[in-house]
Amino acid sequence: MKHFLKLNEIQRNLLVGSIIGDGEITKIYPNSRRKNHSYREHYGVKQEAYRIWKSEFFPNLLYLTKKSSTLRSKSCALFTELYPHFYEKNAKQIPLQLLKLCTSPYLLAAIYLDDGSLSISTRVNHRLKKIYLTPHIFLYLQNYTKDQLLALQCHLVETFDFNFSISKRKDGHGYILRGTSTELTYRFLSFLSPITSTCPSMFYKSSWERRFKQEKEKLNETHKGYEVVATSPDRFKNYSNKEIEKIISLKKQGGLKDKEIAVIVNRSYWSIVYKLRELRKMGLI
Description:
alpha+beta, Endonuclease I-creI
């Protein structure tokens, strides 16, 4: 693993996550003049900015060929070294040995930005004229067997404390990974935000605030007069008097933003938004 270990920690994790995701290590066919494998990652035009973002972590390794919409490398010993970890009989597999060396959030960021999805379920309460939006995280890795996904699932739990469930799917090998709760979704997006916030072109799946705003604007057009609400895992968790006093003080005297208050009192952003709305209605702010 001498070539792989020469990469820095971010590069190792981002590269492994990318090969698990959209990337591939090219094959060497019989009678080929090539001695080494190379990397290749095809993309749609709309995701070019994301691939440029990714390539900037590998200035001497990866480059874009825009004509063919491909992020690629030259043939090199690194990918020859990695090939047997990712392929068995030319079939792609989860690199179990390499996962032990990948404990940085960049691994998870690459897998999610490549193959993940921020899906939204909608529940309409016509009596209260409220629409509840609930975000869900999916990792569409159906090209891997259930056993391999179970191994990846264990790694994500043990390394990052994110417990994804195995969910059935009709295509591929029939299984994907799905977030188990709304709490996981918010925590997952927050955990990756220091990385994903540097890639604006992918905010549609990495920023819940951006997605919520977009969905809300659409629903305001189709359901006029309805309030659009984001489901929060601790929305109904009671606040102590001490917490309420602290929130009022921070808002009145400090003029802090809702995000900053959420961090200080250890509540989710959306829980603070709801509580501040309630306190304003009561005339306390």
